[in-house]
């Protein structure tokens, strides 16, 4: 009985690997417009790269375990949902009001510790207080430049 269940679980696991493979992998992160307009310093760029672009741009740097279902389903869902709310690669298509609003949301989410998502911080390391301050200062300045 146990053996049959284990075989069934193994079969489901193997079949699951064939689904949910659509990846967020543009050749580049397509951030030219966003960077030209919001002028992040090197430090800010490094924070965004390490903590935000995986879910908020057209290119995710996938860790090896992102290829294994069901983890892949879960990660792809976060990326899809994150991009729906905010995609820095799509900055050129946001109007000024939306850009300001997104930067305002960014300040709020980072201040309240909601971004990056906890599950992401557990795997990639926590955002530090200093990193938060640097991000918020840059976002305020960028917001006021519109
Ligand atoms: C693991 C994926 C992931 C990472 C990494 C991540 N986010 Fe998000 N982000 C999401 C998801 C999913 C949502 C939508 C659901 C929610 O608000 O919780 C979201 C929503 C947001 C929103 C709200 C946008 C709106 O107007 O609704 C902002 C702003 C944001 N993220 C900024 C950031 C910043 C800044 C970072 C880096 C410090 C970051 N995120 C890192 C997944 C992520």
If you had to describe this structure to a student in words, what would you say it looks like?
- The chain has helices at residues 2-16, 32-38, 42-51, 53-56, 71-85, 96-111, 118-124, 129-144.
- The protein is elongated, with a radius of gyration of 18 Å.
- It has one domain.
- 62% of the residues lie in helices and 0% in strands.
- The longest helix is centred in the last third of the chain and has 16 residues, at 96-111.
- It contains eight helices and no strands.
- Helix 3 packs across helix 8 and helix 6 (96-111) packs antiparallel against helix 8.
- The model has no long low-confidence stretch (mean pLDDT 95).
- With 146 residues, the protein is mainly α.
- Bound molecules: heme C (HEC).
- Heme C binds at residues 51-52, 54-56, 78, 81-82, 85-86, 102, 105-106, 109-110, 115-117, 120, 127.
């Amino acid at each position: 009985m146990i053996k049959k269940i284990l075989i069934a679980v193994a079969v489901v696991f193997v079949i699951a690997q064939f689904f949910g493979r659509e990846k967020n992998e543009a050749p580049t992160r397509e951030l030219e417009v966003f960077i030209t307009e919001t002028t992040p310093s090197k430090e800010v760029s490094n924070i965004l790269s390490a903590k935000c672009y995986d879910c908020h741009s057209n290119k995710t740097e996938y860790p090896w375990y992102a290829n294994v279902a069901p983890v892949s389903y879960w990660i792809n869902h976060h990326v899809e949902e994150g991009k729906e709310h905010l995609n820095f690669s799509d900055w050129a298509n946001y109007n000024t009001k939306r850009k300001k609003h997104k930067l305002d949301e960014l300040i709020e989410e980072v201040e309240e510790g909601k971004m990056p998502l906890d599950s992401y911080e557990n795997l990639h390391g926590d955002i530090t207080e200093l990193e938060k301050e640097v991000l918020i200062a840059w976002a305020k300045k960028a917001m006021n430049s519109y």
